[in-house]
Amino acid sequence: MAIKFGTDGWRAVIADEFTFANVRLVTQATANYLLREAGSGKIIIGYDNRFLAPEFARAVAEVLTASGFTVYLPSRAVPTPVTAWAIKHYQAMGALMLTASHNPPEYCGLKFIPEYAGPAVPAITSAIEKEIAAVINGGEVKTLNLDEARGRGLVRELEPEADYREYLHGLIDVEALRKAGLKVVVDPLYGAGIGYLEDFLRGAGCQVQAIHNYRDPLFGGDLPDPSARGLEELSRRVRETGAHLGLALDGDADRFGVVDGDGTYLTANQVLYLVLAHLIMDRHYRGPVARTVATTHNLDRLARAHDLEIIETPVGFKYIGEALREKGCILGGEESGGLSIRGHIPEKDGILATALVAELRAVRGRSLGEILADLHSSYGHLVNQRLDIKVDPATKERVLQELPDFAPAKVAGIPVTGRLTVDGVKLTLADGSWVLLRPSGTEPLLRLYAEAPDAGRLRLLQKEITTALRI
To answer: Pairing with 243, which of 37, 197, 210, 336 sits 20 to 30 Å away (CA)?
Structure first.
């Protein structure tokens, strides 16, 4: 069995590959990596609301303390962005987070977050994978009973919620929220974010109603994914209560979902567009903007109009985080629902993202749909869609072999003006349209992304690519 780190850590099915033995193995490999690179120190442990997550977290603590690390161990679930933020708050050397994010309930995952409080870059995950192989091939997995570890002072309690809320007060215009008196429905989708967003908004003077705000490892029989389908109840509740907004988090609260006051679901691309406009026009931020290759070019239009640079990265927030750290970007975002801003940690944070949306709604005093319509009027509009195409392994392998040579001169009759291969193959067209085909890093899928000036042209692009590659 080979344990590999995908786009966002190692994920596997509980009781199949995700076992206590393998969790200890990966933890020992991470400990060995850290001992070799930096020595022992303080490590944050976080976990979401999945089945056995608290028990897996204790197994992680037993291995880390046996190797001489001091661990901060919570008694309840902690969101991924809060776990990452805690690295800075407690001056730790990193964190281990147990989560499978928005994957199905039978999955769990484990990822290492380095000292810079953002996703581990490939050089780090590759080094940990080598340590995993070394442990499998004769290395030792050491454990220390937690009671004994506590007796040695190696286990400390992690209770970050109040401090994180206070920290958010320094990033969000709380006074604008107080004046607006927004009515908000919050849906943490049974996940690790329960209490974080609701309590922050209540403390900022909002009227808040929460749904799905208790632990359910089965996530109500669905995915903990703040998609349009996953937030149908939130949309209905917003309409019924006359709320200004519906705000949602995924299973570990690093991704966001947003519903306008009329119950309309906004895509992540639309939210990124709105938040960037808010940062530029209301907060007067200036600096580069980072987005993945799969994210809307509406951001490009807005950035160009204000003489801001766009930085395009491969898919994966680890690359966005790198741009935030090294390039001073005012916003980093991805179409799958990840967002962070300058001054915050270089990790996607659904709590911050939804709080920013509430701030935008409060500052502008208008619905998100109205604000979006103004942006379209001023900067133009591109329609986008992602198709998740399920294929058998043989078809996926064939397509991946053909992709390097896939370089048509035209798509749907429109000349190709650029070809980017930083992640899959992306073709940009003369009319501002683009298409991208890439394999999923976490699921057995091919993902086809497309953006065009109108829905009709979008469908033509999709049809031509799927026909040409026989998928």
So the answer is: 336
For residue 96, which phi and psi values (nearest 5 degrees)? -115, 125
Taking the CA atoms of 250, 253, 257 and 261 in sequence, report the sign of the dihedral they define: positive
Q: Which of 200, 178, 176 lies closest to 188, judged by CA?
A: 200
Question: What is the Cα–Cα distance from 318 to 129, expressed in whole angstroms?
Answer: 17
| Residue linked to tokens 């509430």 | 358
d(CA 120, CA 111): 8
Strands 445-452 and 383-390: antiparallel
pLDDT value at residue 277: 98
Q: What is the pTM of this model?
A: 0.95
Residue 339: phi and psi, rounded to 5, are -155, 140
**CA quadruple 173, 76, 255, 119: dihedral positive or negative?**
positive
Contacts of 280 (CB under 8 A, 6+ apart): 286, 302, 306, 308, 330
Lowest-pLDDT choice from 134-138, 269-273, 305-309: 134-138
Confidence (pLDDT) at 9: 85
Residue 441 scores a pLDDT above 90: no
* pLDDT tens digits along 297-328: 999 999 999 999 999 999 999 999 999 999 99
| Average confidence (pLDDT) over 212-216 | 97
User: Do 58 and 319 form a contact (C-beta atoms < 8 A)?
Assistant: no
- DSSP codes of every residue in 298-322: HHHHHHHHTT--EEEE-SSHHHHHH
What is the rounded CA–CA span in Å between residue 138 and residue 121?
Answer: 27
Residue 199: name the closest of 79, 99, 118 by CA.
79
User: Closest by alpha carbon to 264, among 255, 251, 274?
Assistant: 274
pLDDT surpasses 80 at 7:
no
Q: Is 292 in contact with 314 (CB distance < 8 Å)?
A: yes
Structural domains in the chain, CATH included, are 10-159 (3.40.120.10), 177-379 (3.40.120.10), 383-468 (3.30.310.50)
Positions of E strands within 86-221: 94-98, 107-114, 155-158, 183-187, 207-210
**CA atoms of 177 and 63, how far apart (whole Å):** 44
Label residue 90 exposed, middle or buried (CB < 10 Å: 0-12, 13-18, 19+): middle
C-alpha to C-alpha distance for 184 and 175, rounded to whole angstroms: 16
pLDDT tens digit sequence for 272-292: 999 999 999 999 999 999 999
pLDDT score of 351: 98
CB atoms within 10 A of CB 114: 19
- Cα Rg of the chain (Å, integer): 22
* Alpha carbons 103 and 168: distance in angstroms, whole number: 27
pLDDT of residue 51 exceeding 90? yes
Tokens of 208: 């808040």
